[in-house]
Amino acid sequence: MLEDDIKQPTRREWASFWSLVFLQILQSFNVNAAKFVLMPLAAWIFSKRVALDPNLTDTSKHIIALCLVVPYVLFAPTAGWLSDRFAKTSVIRWTSWMQLAVLGFLIFSLKLKHLDLCITAFFFISLQAALLSPSKIGVVKEYVGARRLGFASGVMEGTVVLAILAGQIAGGAWFDHGLKQHDHGWDAALVPMWTLIGLCLLSIGLAHVTQKSQPNSNRPFSFNEAISHLRDLGEFFKDRSLLLYGLGVAYFWGFGGFINLVILSIAEHMFHGGAGTGGAFAGLWAMPGIGIIGGSVLASFISRRNIELGLAPLGATLMAISSAILAFADPQSILMLVMLVIAGASGAVFLVPLQAMVQEKPSDERRGAVISASNLLNSLAGIVAVALQLVLEAAHVSFAVQFLFITAFSLFMAAITFRHFGADFIRLIGLALIKTIYRVRVAGEDNVPKHGGVLLLPNHVTWADAFFLSAACPRKVRFVMDATFMDNPWVGAFCKVFQTVPIERGNAREALRTAADALKEGDVLCLFPEGQLTRTGTLSELQRGFELIARMAKCPLVPVWTAGAWGSIFSFEGGRFFRKLPHKLPHAVNVAFGPALDAKTTDLEEVRDAMLEASAAAVGIHFQEEGVDTRHGLLWANGYQLGQINALQRRGSYATLAGDPLPDELFALTTAFPEQFDTTCRLEPTFSARFIQHWIGGQVLREAIQHAADASVVFYDFSPEALISVEKPGLVHCPCLALEGTIIAMSMPDPPLAYATSEPQAGRKAGTWGKLLPGFYLRHGDHGAVSVHGPALPEGGLALPAGTTLDAECFLVAPSA
To answer: What residue range is the signal peptide (predicted)?
Structure first.
C-alpha cells in the first residue's frame, strides 16, 4: 500500500498546499482579467468597424475564447511529460516566470495598438496555464494524501473559480472605468496590465516557498511524446470508468464556455459594444461564478470523508433545470441572475467528485499523463462549445433557443450519470435523510484500516443499521445479505444501492467464497454475525462462518457496536417494527469501531468480547459532552443502558413497593431511566396486579408477591434470592443483578416473534441474572476472578462473584449454575 495514500500531512506540507492554492488564485486571476480586458476591447474595436461596414461579423470573442483552450489541445502531452519528468514544483516555478514574460509581451502589443498581437500574447498566457495545470493538480495528492484528496480537490476547484470570477469582474470593470476616463479602448486596456505584473511577481514568490517534490519518471522527450495525447486519450478510452469521469469534467468546461459566450453576446446586445459592455458581461458572469464557489464548497464539505459520486447526477439534473429556466428569463431580471447562480452551483456539484476521481484513480506514474489527457478532453469540449455558439449566433438563433440547446445536452448528461451513479445518488440522499433524522456520532473510526479488505462485525438492532454504519464508517461499506431477500423489490432496490453481496445459505461453501472474493477486491464488507435482528436489544448468539470468510480473504475483523438505535421506529422496541411514532427527533445514534482483530488467531468468543467492549465505547460517546459530575454521570449512563433493552418500556410505567429498601439504592431505575425515556416509576403502598403489570424490587416485594392471591405481573427481582424461581400462576419472574447501586444484568419476558419465520429469542434463562446490559464487558483474572467494566462503572470496574461467566447468548451465568 502506498504510504502517500495513508499519510498524515505535515505542517510543511499543509503550508505548501495553501501556498499552491494562493499561487493558483493569483495566476488564474491574471489570465481571466486579461481575457476580460481583451474581449470588451475587441467588442469596442468591432463597434467602430461595424459603423463603417454593417455586414461585418464579430468573431474576435470566439478567437479569444479558442486561445484559452487551444494550448491545452496542442501542448497537453508536453505539459503532462513535464509534470512526470521533472519535479512538479520545478515546473510550477518555471511557468510562473513564463507568465511574467508573456504579460510583458501583452503590454508591448497594447502599446502598438495591434489586436492580432494582443490575441497572440493571450495565446501564450493560456499556454503558460496549460503547462502549469498537470503539475499544479498532480502535486496536491503528494501534499495531502489520498484520504484528504476530496477536500483538497474541492478547495482547488472552488478557489480557482473564485480567482476566475474575481479576474473577470475586475477585468471588465477596469476596462469600463478606463473607457469612461480615456474614451479610448487601447488606453483603457493598457492601465490594468501593470497590476497584473505585480500579482505575477507575488505568485513567483509563492512558487518558491512550496516544498519540493520528486520526479515520477525519467523518460526522455521525443516527437512521439509530443503527440502522445492521442495515445493517452486511447488509454482513457480503455478504462470505461475513468473515461466517464473525464467526459463529465469535460462537459462542465464545455457547459461553462458556452454559457460564457452567450452571456457576452447578451451584454453586447444590451450596450452595443460600447461603455458598459465589459461591466455588464462581468456582472452577469459573476452570478455563475458565485454559484460555482458555493457549489464547490458544498461538494467539498459533503466529500470531506469520501468522494461522493452521487453528487454528479444531482448536479447534472440541476444544470438542465436551470438552463431551461434561463431560456425564458428576461436578461435584466432577478430570475436571470438567480438561475445563473444555480447553474454555476449545480455545475460545481457535478464537477467536484468527477475531478477528484480523475486525480485519485490513476497511479502516481501515470497521474500526470491522465490529467493532461483530461485537460485535452476539457479543451476539446471548449472548442466544441465555441463552435456551437458561433454557429448559433451566425444563424441569428435567439438567446432563448441557445439556452435550450445546452439544456438538451445537460439532460443527456444527467441520463448518463444516473445510469452509472444512480445507486450512489440514492445512497447519498438516503444518508442525508438519515443524518437529518438521526444524529450519528462516531468513536474509533481510525480503527478501520484505510485500505484493503475489512470485515465489519456489528450488532444488529434495526432495519436501518446499514444506513447508520454507512454514515459512520470512513470508507464505503458493502453488506452481506441472504440472497432469498433479493426477491423482495424493496429489499432488492436497497441491495443495489449498497452493492450488497448476496449469499446462498443453502450453499455454505459458495457463500463463503462470494464474501471472501469481495474482501479480496479491497472492499469494506459488513456482516451481521448474529444473523438476525435483536428483539431484546442485547447481543444474540453469534453465528459461525465470518471467521472463515476473513481467513480466506486474509483480512482483519473490526468489531462494531451501534448504541441508541433501540427505540427508533426501525427497532423492535414496543414489540413491533415500524408501526410506532419516533420518541424524539433528531434521534441520537452512537457507533463505535473497536480495534481490528487478526482473523487467524481470533475465535468466536473473542469477537463477542470485542463487540461488547465496543458497546462500552458506543455508550460512552453519549455522555462525553454531558458535563455532569462523575458519580451522577455514571448513574445516568446506567439509566441510558436500561433504555437500550426490551425490559422496561419507554413512555410506560412500573412500580416499586413502599417499604422495600432496594429500589432507593437503584438511582438508574428510580430517576435516571424515567427522566431520559419519559417513563413513570410509581411508589405503591401495597402490591396489586390489577392496574400495574411491571414491578421492580428486592426481598420485600418478592415476599409480597409470594403471598398475593393474584400475581400475574412481570417481576424484576433484584433480591439476593433472585436466582430461585418464584412459581405463581401468571407470574413472569425475571432475575436481575445490581452491584453497588448499578444494574449489571436484567432478565425480561421472551419477546414475541416478529414474523412467522423469525427465530425464537430468549429474554430469561434459568441459572442466570439475565442479559448483560449493552455497554458492559467482562474481564477475567486469576483463580476465576471476574470483573465487569463500562462507562457506568468506576475506572477499575466492579468484581463479580468468582466463577461468573457469559454464555453464547450474553446471559450472565451465576457460578452455581
So the answer is: none
